[in-house]
Design goal:
The complex is a heterodimer. Chain A is mainly α. Chain A has 13 helices and no strands. The longest helix of chain B is centred in the C-terminal third of the chain and has 16 residues. Classes of the chains: A mainly alpha, B alpha/beta.
């Protein structure tokens, strides 16, 4: 069992190294990001403790449905399996629990601690095989897969839009639109197998244009209800709405280009830094887009 | 026609090929055989342009890649994408218009289910269906018979024979000699980074025994089986 955890630790270290960062620095960055997000969350909402505990539970639940459940069952005793899952759950929940204790949210702490034990007992991996229908059959694959994996975020954005109308808060409506587009960007976070890029008959430039066109078309399809409702309900804010929508489209394009600028690898530190800067200082996208485009063309030309 | 001249490929210090040459004529079916790790898949990936190499690989058609259907040993599938959507993706990639995908589902695959949940054999059949529907002129089948049931094996043999009649060029790798003997016009034996033999169809009967002697030799005797 100890060897299992040593291997897990090695795997995480290797992932960080592949990402281009020394493991120790990686852990420091992760901790800093975690603490920063924690502080932000507790500053912006009074429901932070519940959201915080829910995040920890979501990660644990996600881990419960892991793909190596059969491997675990075959190679470890029932008791060891339970112990491993418990230790993994505690490893996930300890940072959250520490902050909750520090902030004096003892009920949430107790619930999270209890849930860590309960989730360790859940042995079956949840498999939802039913095919979720989508409107994107004709043009796979990013929105087709993304919609099926994270349709609940789209639903959440729609609900937030309705709430924004109900409480007449235009900014909340814009927040819903931002959530939608962040969700759409996440559809492009995984790099496809080179075979799929190789299969395309396009030249790199046409390939990128086709990807951007599809992205804009399909993101419009999903965001139209939000834009339409906000337009009807806050028509005096029309220009702000359109400007915000254009900014969202620009970021989507930036993200698509950033993805292929490191092809066939995933987005790494340099791309992440540039994307991060663009979120802090938006006008820089005007320089980042041509840069990512140029690098993407170069990277894709090895296969196309 | 596909012509390979002085192809060399290495991964770091590990040399896979050294100056190999071969010519694959249009309308013929070629079998590539060799032990595991002999470089069959690497050769296919070089031909497809998925690997960098030294030497030249030329073809008689322009934009060869766009007329090549590549069936990989272990086709890769996205999660949450159905069989039909996978086919549609590969058709879009080549700008092929096929409206009746369901009618051409000859392997009777459950096309409305997620492809990632298919069995190994079903995945292979799905990947094969997709590249066949793309209407390519050249095909690379990397171990097409592995993991596939006997009915489908027979079907794949029929498909290869039909593709040959349609003047398509096909390269196949397989460890099942009988299937190669049934489908190929020529078999090339790859060993230690070189094509050590080119055998025409009329000499296939002696090839199996020769290969056994050449590749296996008395290796099994080294194993102390009791």
């Amino acid at each position: 069992m100890l060897y299992y955890f040593r291997l897990k630790f090695k795997i995480v270290n290797r992932k960080l190294t592949e990402f281009g960062v020394h493991p120790i620095i990686g852990y420091c960055i992760l901790l800093a990001v975690f603490l920063f997000l924690t502080e932000r969350l507790f500053l912006v909402t009074k429901y932070a403790s519940s959201i915080y505990a829910s995040c920890a539970m979501y990660i644990m639940l996600y881990k419960t449905a892991n793909k190596n459940a059969d491997f675990m069952k075959m190679n470890f005793s029932k008791k060891d399996c339970y112990l491993i899952r418990l230790i993994e759950n505690l490893a996930v929940s300890v940072p959250f629990i520490s902050v909750l204790i520090y902030k004096h949210f003892y009920i949430e702490t107790a619930i999270l601690f209890f849930i860590s034990f309960i989730f360790a007992l859940i042995t079956t991996s949840v498999k939802f095989n039913k095919t979720i229908p989508t409107p994107f059959f004709k043009e796979p694959f990013e929105f087709l897969i993304g919609f099926r994996k994270r349709f609940y975020i789209i639903l959440l954005a729609y609900i937030l839009t309705f709430i924004s109308v109900y409480v007449t808060n235009f900014n909340l409506g814009l927040f819903a639109l931002a959530i939608s587009f962040l969700n759409f960007m996440s559809f492009y976070s995984d790099m496809e197998h080179p075979f799929y890029v190789w299969s395309f008959h396009h030249k790199p430039k046409d390939f990128l244009i086709a990807k951007i066109k599809t992205g804009l078309k399909q993101s419009s399809l999903l965001s139209i209800p939000i834009v339409f409702i906000l337009f009807i309900s806050f028509y005096t804010e029309f220009s702000t709405l359109i400007t915000f929508l254009l900014i969202c489209y620009t970021y989507l394009i930036t993200f698509i280009l950033a993805k292929y600028s490191n092809f066939p690898k995933q987005i790494e530190i340099p791309q992440s830094i540039l994307l991060g800067i663009s979120f802090i200082f938006p006008p820089i996208v005007l320089f980042i887009i041509p840069y990512f485009y140029k690098v993407s063309i170069k990277k894709l030309s090895t296969l196309l | 026609m596909i012509e390979i001249k002085n192809l060399s490929k290495s991964f770091g210090k590990n040399l896979v090929f050294k100056d190999i040459s071969a010519c694959f004529k249009k309308g013929d079916v070629y079998g590539i055989v060799g032990e595991n790790g002999s470089g069959k898949t690497t050769l296919f990936r070089c031909i497809a342009g998925l690997e960098k190499y030294n030497g030249t690989i030329t073809s008689s058609v322009s934009e060869f890649k766009n007329q090549l259907g590549f069936l990989m040993t272990e086709p890769y599938f996205f999660n949450k994408i159905t069989g039909k959507e996978y086919i549609q993706l590969l058709l879009n990639a080549r700008n092929s218009k096929v409206t009746n995908i369901n009618d051409q589902n000859i392997f009777e695959l459950p096309l409305d289910q997620y492809a990632s949940n298919y069995s190994t054999g079903m995945k292979k059949k799905l990947a094969l269906t997709a590249i066949l529907l793309q209407s390519n002129d050249y095909f690379i089948f990397d171990e097409p018979f592995n993991g596939v049931d006997i009915h489908s094996n027979m079907m794949i043999i029929e498909i290869i024979q039909k593709l040959k009649k349609l003047n398509k060029t096909i390269l196949i790798s397989s460890h099942i000699f009988s299937t190669l003997a049934e489908t190929c016009d020529e078999i090339l034996v790859l060993k230690q980074g070189e094509f050590i033999k080119h055998v025409k169809k009329e000499n296939f009967s002696s090839l199996e025994k020769e290969m056994k002697d050449l590749i296996i030799g008395n290796c099994v005797d080294k194993l102390c089986l009791t």
